[in-house]
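Entry type: protein chain
Record version: 2
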Amino acid sequence: ESDTASEISFQLNRHKKTPSIGSHSSDMASVSSVSGSVLSVYSGDFGSVDAQGTVEFALDYDEKNREFQVHVSQCKDLAVVDEKKGRSDPYVKTYLLPDKARMGKRKTSVKKRTVNPIYNEVLRYKIEKMVLLIQKLNLSVWHNDPLGRNSFLGEIEIDLASWDWSNRKLNWYPLKPRSLSAVNGVDHRGVMSLSIKYVPPGSLGKWPKNPPSGEVHIWVKDVKDLLQLRPSGVDSFVKCYVLPDTSKKSFQKTRVIKRDTNPVFNHTIVYDGFHTEDLKDACVELTVWDHEKLTNHFLGGIRLGLGTGLSYGISVDWMDSTQEEVAFWQEMMLAANEWIEGLLPLRSL
Protein backbone atom coordinates (compact mmCIF):
# COMPACT_ATOMS: atom_id res chain seq x y z
CA GLU A 1 0.00 0.00 0.00
CA SER A 2 2.98 2.31 0.17
CA ASP A 3 5.90 2.76 -2.17
CA THR A 4 8.51 3.03 0.56
CA ALA A 5 8.88 1.31 3.91
CA SER A 6 11.70 2.05 6.29
CA GLU A 7 12.44 0.90 9.81
CA ILE A 8 14.39 2.85 12.39
CA SER A 9 15.24 2.09 15.99
CA PHE A 10 14.06 4.53 18.64
CA GLN A 11 16.75 4.34 21.30
CA LEU A 12 16.94 6.49 24.40
CA ASN A 13 18.40 6.01 27.84
CA ARG A 14 14.93 6.31 29.30
CA HIS A 15 15.76 6.33 32.99
CA LYS A 16 18.90 8.45 32.97
CA LYS A 17 17.45 11.93 33.38
CA THR A 18 20.59 13.85 32.57
CA PRO A 19 21.14 17.09 30.61
CA SER A 20 22.25 14.95 27.64
CA ILE A 21 18.62 14.03 26.96
CA GLY A 22 17.48 17.58 27.42
CA SER A 23 20.10 18.75 24.97
CA HIS A 24 18.03 17.27 22.19
CA SER A 25 15.70 20.23 22.49
CA SER A 26 18.56 22.53 21.49
CA ASP A 27 19.31 20.21 18.57
CA MET A 28 15.93 21.25 17.20
CA ALA A 29 17.53 24.50 16.12
CA SER A 30 19.35 22.60 13.38
CA VAL A 31 16.32 20.52 12.44
CA SER A 32 13.84 23.37 12.25
CA SER A 33 16.07 26.39 12.37
CA VAL A 34 13.26 28.70 11.33
CA SER A 35 11.02 28.01 14.31
CA GLY A 36 12.15 31.01 16.34
CA SER A 37 11.66 33.56 13.59
CA VAL A 38 8.34 32.10 12.50
CA LEU A 39 6.82 32.51 15.94
CA SER A 40 8.09 36.04 16.34
CA VAL A 41 5.85 37.44 13.59
CA TYR A 42 2.96 37.16 16.05
CA SER A 43 4.86 37.54 19.31
CA GLY A 44 4.51 40.54 21.59
CA ASP A 45 1.84 42.72 23.17
CA PHE A 46 -0.92 43.77 20.77
CA GLY A 47 -3.41 45.37 23.12
CA SER A 48 -1.48 47.78 25.31
CA VAL A 49 -1.42 50.77 22.92
CA ASP A 50 -3.49 51.88 19.94
CA ALA A 51 -1.81 52.04 16.55
CA GLN A 52 -1.25 55.58 15.32
CA GLY A 53 1.13 57.66 13.24
CA THR A 54 2.73 57.15 9.84
CA VAL A 55 5.77 55.49 8.31
CA GLU A 56 7.82 56.67 5.31
CA PHE A 57 9.47 54.08 3.10
CA ALA A 58 10.20 53.15 -0.52
CA LEU A 59 10.42 49.82 -2.37
CA ASP A 60 12.78 48.83 -5.15
CA TYR A 61 13.98 45.70 -6.92
CA ASP A 62 17.62 45.51 -8.02
CA GLU A 63 17.49 43.38 -11.18
CA LYS A 64 21.27 43.05 -11.42
CA ASN A 65 21.72 41.68 -7.90
CA ARG A 66 18.28 40.02 -7.74
CA GLU A 67 17.57 41.86 -4.51
CA PHE A 68 14.37 43.28 -3.05
CA GLN A 69 15.06 46.47 -1.09
CA VAL A 70 12.90 48.20 1.51
CA HIS A 71 14.22 51.69 2.25
CA VAL A 72 12.85 52.59 5.68
CA SER A 73 13.17 56.34 6.12
CA GLN A 74 11.30 57.44 9.28
CA CYS A 75 8.12 57.39 11.36
CA LYS A 76 6.02 60.21 12.79
CA ASP A 77 3.61 60.55 15.73
CA LEU A 78 3.93 56.98 17.00
CA ALA A 79 2.02 55.88 20.11
CA VAL A 80 3.66 56.42 23.50
CA VAL A 81 4.19 53.08 25.26
CA ASP A 82 5.59 54.18 28.62
CA GLU A 83 3.25 57.04 29.55
CA LYS A 84 4.96 57.70 32.90
CA LYS A 85 8.26 58.36 31.19
CA GLY A 86 6.63 59.59 27.97
CA ARG A 87 8.79 57.34 25.84
CA SER A 88 8.81 54.76 23.07
CA ASP A 89 11.85 52.92 21.71
CA PRO A 90 10.66 52.03 18.20
CA TYR A 91 12.06 49.84 15.46
CA VAL A 92 10.67 48.60 12.13
CA LYS A 93 10.31 44.92 11.22
CA THR A 94 9.45 43.38 7.83
CA TYR A 95 8.31 39.96 6.62
CA LEU A 96 7.42 38.54 3.23
CA LEU A 97 4.09 36.72 3.50
CA PRO A 98 2.93 34.01 3.42
CA ASP A 99 6.46 32.63 3.26
CA LYS A 100 7.63 34.04 6.62
CA ALA A 101 9.73 31.00 7.43
CA ARG A 102 11.71 31.01 4.21
CA MET A 103 12.79 34.62 4.19
CA GLY A 104 12.95 35.34 7.90
CA LYS A 105 12.52 38.76 9.35
CA ARG A 106 14.46 41.94 8.71
CA LYS A 107 14.50 44.82 11.14
CA THR A 108 16.02 48.23 11.64
CA SER A 109 17.98 49.50 14.60
CA VAL A 110 16.12 50.69 17.71
CA LYS A 111 15.72 54.46 18.18
CA LYS A 112 15.34 55.34 21.85
CA ARG A 113 13.04 57.85 23.52
CA THR A 114 11.26 59.12 20.42
CA VAL A 115 7.91 58.91 18.67
CA ASN A 116 9.46 60.42 15.51
CA PRO A 117 12.37 58.06 14.76
CA ILE A 118 14.64 58.55 11.75
CA TYR A 119 16.22 55.35 10.36
CA ASN A 120 17.39 55.79 6.75
CA GLU A 121 18.14 52.05 6.57
CA VAL A 122 17.71 49.54 3.74
CA LEU A 123 16.33 46.06 4.52
CA ARG A 124 17.40 43.59 1.83
CA TYR A 125 16.05 40.24 0.57
CA LYS A 126 17.84 38.01 -1.95
CA ILE A 127 14.86 36.71 -3.92
CA GLU A 128 13.82 36.09 -7.52
CA LYS A 129 11.38 38.67 -8.91
CA MET A 130 8.79 36.07 -9.95
CA VAL A 131 8.76 34.65 -6.39
CA LEU A 132 8.50 38.13 -4.91
CA LEU A 133 5.42 38.91 -7.00
CA ILE A 134 3.35 36.18 -5.35
CA GLN A 135 4.03 37.55 -1.87
CA LYS A 136 2.96 40.41 0.37
CA LEU A 137 5.18 42.75 2.33
CA ASN A 138 4.26 43.10 6.00
CA LEU A 139 5.93 46.13 7.58
CA SER A 140 5.28 46.72 11.28
CA VAL A 141 6.57 49.11 13.95
CA TRP A 142 7.36 47.91 17.48
CA HIS A 143 8.51 49.31 20.81
CA ASN A 144 11.60 47.48 22.02
CA ASP A 145 11.25 46.21 25.57
CA PRO A 146 14.45 45.17 27.43
CA LEU A 147 12.60 42.19 28.92
CA GLY A 148 11.48 40.96 25.51
CA ARG A 149 7.78 41.86 25.67
CA ASN A 150 7.77 44.22 22.71
CA SER A 151 4.67 46.33 22.02
CA PHE A 152 3.00 46.55 18.63
CA LEU A 153 2.67 50.13 17.34
CA GLY A 154 1.09 49.61 13.90
CA GLU A 155 1.58 47.96 10.52
CA ILE A 156 0.95 48.14 6.80
CA GLU A 157 0.62 45.28 4.33
CA ILE A 158 1.32 45.62 0.59
CA ASP A 159 0.39 43.20 -2.19
CA LEU A 160 3.59 43.11 -4.26
CA ALA A 161 1.83 41.68 -7.34
CA SER A 162 -0.01 44.98 -7.81
CA TRP A 163 2.82 47.27 -6.71
CA ASP A 164 3.95 50.00 -9.14
CA TRP A 165 7.65 49.14 -9.47
CA SER A 166 8.35 52.38 -11.33
CA ASN A 167 7.58 54.16 -8.05
CA ARG A 168 10.90 54.33 -6.20
CA LYS A 169 10.11 57.47 -4.22
CA LEU A 170 9.70 57.68 -0.47
CA ASN A 171 6.02 57.85 0.48
CA TRP A 172 4.11 58.19 3.74
CA TYR A 173 1.67 55.45 4.83
CA PRO A 174 -0.71 55.40 7.83
CA LEU A 175 -0.03 52.67 10.38
CA LYS A 176 -2.99 50.35 10.96
CA PRO A 177 -4.06 48.10 13.87
CA ARG A 178 -3.18 44.41 13.74
CA SER A 179 -5.68 42.53 11.60
CA LEU A 180 -7.88 40.06 13.47
CA SER A 181 -6.57 37.11 11.47
CA ALA A 182 -2.99 38.00 12.35
CA VAL A 183 -3.74 38.38 16.06
CA ASN A 184 -5.42 34.98 16.10
CA GLY A 185 -2.47 33.46 14.27
CA VAL A 186 -4.53 32.33 11.26
CA ASP A 187 -1.88 30.92 9.00
CA HIS A 188 -3.08 28.29 6.54
CA ARG A 189 -0.18 26.11 5.42
CA GLY A 190 -1.97 23.03 4.13
CA VAL A 191 -3.41 19.79 5.54
CA MET A 192 -1.64 16.44 5.96
CA SER A 193 -3.44 13.10 5.58
CA LEU A 194 -1.79 10.28 7.52
CA SER A 195 -2.35 7.14 9.58
CA ILE A 196 -0.47 5.92 12.66
CA LYS A 197 -0.40 2.63 14.56
CA TYR A 198 1.25 1.36 17.75
CA VAL A 199 2.29 -2.31 17.96
CA PRO A 200 2.98 -3.22 21.63
CA PRO A 201 5.88 -5.57 22.52
CA GLY A 202 5.11 -9.27 21.97
CA SER A 203 1.68 -8.65 20.45
CA LEU A 204 2.01 -10.38 17.07
CA GLY A 205 0.11 -13.60 17.64
CA LYS A 206 2.01 -16.83 17.12
CA TRP A 207 5.39 -15.12 17.66
CA PRO A 208 4.86 -14.12 21.31
CA LYS A 209 8.18 -12.29 21.54
CA ASN A 210 7.89 -10.56 18.19
CA PRO A 211 8.37 -7.63 18.22
CA PRO A 212 10.64 -7.76 21.29
CA SER A 213 9.94 -4.04 21.74
CA GLY A 214 7.05 -1.93 20.53
CA GLU A 215 6.78 -0.24 17.14
CA VAL A 216 5.23 3.01 15.94
CA HIS A 217 4.11 2.95 12.30
CA ILE A 218 3.62 6.25 10.46
CA TRP A 219 1.97 6.28 7.04
CA VAL A 220 2.31 9.70 5.36
CA LYS A 221 -0.33 9.70 2.62
CA ASP A 222 -0.57 13.18 1.09
CA VAL A 223 -0.68 16.91 1.72
CA LYS A 224 -3.21 19.36 0.32
CA ASP A 225 -2.95 23.12 -0.34
CA LEU A 226 0.76 23.75 0.28
CA LEU A 227 2.10 27.29 -0.03
CA GLN A 228 2.94 27.95 -3.68
CA LEU A 229 6.40 29.51 -3.63
CA ARG A 230 6.85 29.62 -7.39
CA PRO A 231 4.48 29.93 -10.36
CA SER A 232 5.33 26.31 -11.26
CA GLY A 233 4.25 25.07 -7.82
CA VAL A 234 6.46 23.57 -5.12
CA ASP A 235 8.96 20.66 -4.91
CA SER A 236 8.07 19.15 -1.54
CA PHE A 237 9.18 16.34 0.75
CA VAL A 238 8.46 15.32 4.35
CA LYS A 239 11.02 14.90 7.15
CA CYS A 240 10.33 12.78 10.23
CA TYR A 241 12.01 12.63 13.65
CA VAL A 242 10.98 10.98 16.90
CA LEU A 243 11.91 13.57 19.51
CA PRO A 244 13.92 13.87 21.69
CA ASP A 245 16.10 11.78 19.35
CA THR A 246 17.38 14.05 16.54
CA SER A 247 20.19 11.72 15.47
CA LYS A 248 20.58 10.23 12.00
CA LYS A 249 19.02 7.03 13.32
CA SER A 250 15.79 8.91 14.02
CA PHE A 251 15.76 10.91 10.78
CA GLN A 252 13.68 9.78 7.81
CA LYS A 253 12.34 11.56 4.74
CA THR A 254 10.13 10.89 1.75
CA ARG A 255 11.03 11.35 -1.89
CA VAL A 256 10.57 14.81 -3.47
CA ILE A 257 7.31 15.42 -5.34
CA LYS A 258 7.92 18.13 -7.94
CA ARG A 259 5.73 21.02 -9.09
CA ASP A 260 2.69 20.04 -7.04
CA THR A 261 0.90 21.87 -4.20
CA ASN A 262 -1.09 18.68 -3.48
CA PRO A 263 1.67 16.03 -3.32
CA VAL A 264 0.94 12.32 -2.76
CA PHE A 265 3.79 10.65 -0.82
CA ASN A 266 2.35 7.28 0.27
CA HIS A 267 5.40 6.66 2.46
CA THR A 268 5.48 4.39 5.52
CA ILE A 269 8.01 4.60 8.36
CA VAL A 270 8.39 2.09 11.20
CA TYR A 271 10.18 3.02 14.43
CA ASP A 272 11.00 0.08 16.71
CA GLY A 273 12.49 0.16 20.22
CA PHE A 274 9.31 1.68 21.71
CA HIS A 275 8.16 0.63 25.16
CA THR A 276 4.59 1.57 25.96
CA GLU A 277 5.71 4.11 28.56
CA ASP A 278 7.76 5.92 25.89
CA LEU A 279 4.54 7.07 24.23
CA LYS A 280 4.04 9.60 27.04
CA ASP A 281 7.46 11.21 26.58
CA ALA A 282 8.20 10.94 22.85
CA CYS A 283 6.91 13.15 20.05
CA VAL A 284 6.71 12.38 16.32
CA GLU A 285 7.58 15.52 14.36
CA LEU A 286 6.62 15.61 10.68
CA THR A 287 7.71 18.67 8.71
CA VAL A 288 7.13 19.56 5.05
CA TRP A 289 9.88 21.29 3.09
CA ASP A 290 10.37 22.84 -0.33
CA HIS A 291 13.46 21.39 -2.01
CA GLU A 292 15.98 23.67 -3.72
CA LYS A 293 19.61 23.12 -4.69
CA LEU A 294 21.23 25.36 -2.09
CA THR A 295 18.79 25.10 0.80
CA ASN A 296 15.41 23.63 1.76
CA HIS A 297 12.58 25.91 2.88
CA PHE A 298 10.21 25.08 5.72
CA LEU A 299 6.53 24.96 4.72
CA GLY A 300 4.78 23.65 7.82
CA GLY A 301 4.58 20.72 10.19
CA ILE A 302 2.80 18.78 12.91
CA ARG A 303 3.92 17.28 16.23
CA LEU A 304 2.20 14.15 17.53
CA GLY A 305 2.43 13.63 21.28
CA LEU A 306 0.68 14.40 24.54
CA GLY A 307 1.72 18.07 24.49
CA THR A 308 2.65 18.14 28.17
CA GLY A 309 5.76 20.29 27.79
CA LEU A 310 7.80 17.52 29.43
CA SER A 311 9.90 14.65 28.07
CA TYR A 312 11.35 12.14 30.54
CA GLY A 313 10.92 14.70 33.30
CA ILE A 314 12.69 17.50 31.45
CA SER A 315 10.95 20.66 30.21
CA VAL A 316 11.13 20.93 26.39
CA ASP A 317 9.63 23.46 23.98
CA TRP A 318 8.80 20.90 21.29
CA MET A 319 6.26 19.01 23.39
CA ASP A 320 3.61 21.51 22.24
CA SER A 321 1.05 19.43 20.32
CA THR A 322 -2.30 21.07 19.54
CA GLN A 323 -5.58 19.62 20.82
CA GLU A 324 -6.12 17.86 17.48
CA GLU A 325 -2.62 16.38 17.50
CA VAL A 326 -2.93 15.23 21.13
CA ALA A 327 -6.32 13.59 20.45
CA PHE A 328 -4.84 11.77 17.43
CA TRP A 329 -1.91 10.44 19.50
CA GLN A 330 -4.17 9.42 22.40
CA GLU A 331 -6.45 7.50 20.05
CA MET A 332 -3.43 5.54 18.80
CA MET A 333 -2.35 4.77 22.38
CA LEU A 334 -5.81 3.41 23.21
CA ALA A 335 -6.19 1.28 20.07
CA ALA A 336 -3.15 -1.03 19.88
CA ASN A 337 -2.43 -2.67 16.53
CA GLU A 338 -5.04 -0.54 14.72
CA TRP A 339 -4.42 2.09 12.07
CA ILE A 340 -5.75 5.49 13.17
CA GLU A 341 -6.52 7.87 10.32
CA GLY A 342 -6.13 11.61 10.64
CA LEU A 343 -6.33 14.87 8.70
CA LEU A 344 -4.23 17.51 10.47
CA PRO A 345 -3.49 21.14 9.57
CA LEU A 346 0.17 22.08 9.10
CA ARG A 347 1.43 24.84 11.38
CA SER A 348 4.54 26.95 11.82
CA LEU A 349 5.79 25.00 14.89
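Comment: The chain has a mean pLDDT of 80.
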